[in-house]
């Protein structure tokens, strides 16, 4: 089993393995090797061929998607509970119900990447299978998105 680590929030806590802390077993993630860059700005005039190109640019924000299998231990209710607990850890909620999402650090030791951004909660499963006889484990597969707003915080050549 491939293992990935996750740190939620800006505290001093060390990253935890997602399978141990939340029951989320890593399946796959984007094959991103670096951030995209913002589009070049250009100006074109009808009386001139081509265009004038401003060749200065910076890295662009992007979404990063991770696929997990929920280790539900034979119960979809348990999978729902694990996903609810994971989602609740991603934000703080005030008395008015307003959610303030925490920054996350996703360490993918297999692909040697560190992705830093703001999480979207997991709201639906991509695969959902229940053994009606109760003889086999139920299967719940989910995708989790991280919005990277500052690509310079990411590391696409993770060594530790």
SSE order: EEHEEEEHEEEEEE
The biggest sheet amounts to: 8 strands, antiparallel
- The value of Rg in angstroms is 20 Å
Structural class: mainly beta
Helix content: 10-25%
**Which regions have little confidence, pLDDT < 50, spanning 5+ residues?**
none
Question: Outline, from the CA principal axes?
Answer: elongated
Mean pLDDT: 90
**Number of contiguous helices:** 2
Strand content: 35-45%
Distance between the termini: 19 Å
For the secondary structure, the number of strands is 12
Task: Annotate the secondary structure layout.
Blueprint: E1 5-8, E2 16-17, H1 18-22, E3 24-29, E4 41-43, E5 52-54, E6 62-70, H2 76-89, E7 91-93, E8 99-101, E9 104-108, E10 113-119, E11 125-129, E12 139-148
Antiparallel strand pairs: 1-2, 1-9, 3-6, 4-5, 6-12, 7-8, 9-10, 10-12, 11-12
Describe the structure.
It is built from two helices and twelve strands; from the N terminus they run ββαββββαββββββ. The mean pLDDT is 90. It is mainly beta. Strand 9 and strand 10 form a beta hairpin. Helix content is 12%, strand content 38%. Strands 1, 2, 3, 6, 9, 10, 11 and 12 form an eight-stranded antiparallel sheet that branches.
Key features of this structure:
single chain; 160 residues; mainly beta; eight-stranded antiparallel sheet; two-stranded antiparallel ribbon; 2 helices
């Amino acid at each position: 089993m491939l293992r990935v680590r996750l740190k939620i929030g800006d505290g001093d806590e060390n990253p935890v393995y997602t399978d141990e802390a939340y029951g989320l077993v890593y399946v796959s993630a984007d094959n991103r090797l670096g951030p995209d860059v913002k589009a070049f700005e250009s100006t074109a005039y009808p009386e001139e061929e081509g265009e004038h190109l401003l060749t200065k640019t910076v890295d662009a924000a992007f979404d990063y998607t991770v696929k997990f299998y929920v280790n539900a231990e034979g119960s979809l209710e348990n999978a729902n509970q694990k996903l609810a607990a994971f989602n609740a850890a991603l934000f703080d909620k005030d008395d008015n119900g307003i959610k303030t999402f925490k920054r996350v650090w996703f360490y993918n030791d297999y692909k040697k990447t560190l992705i830093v951004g703001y999480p979207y909660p997991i709201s639906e499963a991509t695969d959902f299978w229940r053994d009606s006889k109760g003889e086999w484990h139920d299967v719940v597969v989910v995708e989790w998105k991280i919005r990277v707003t500052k690509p310079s915080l990411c590391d696409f050549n993770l060594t530790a």
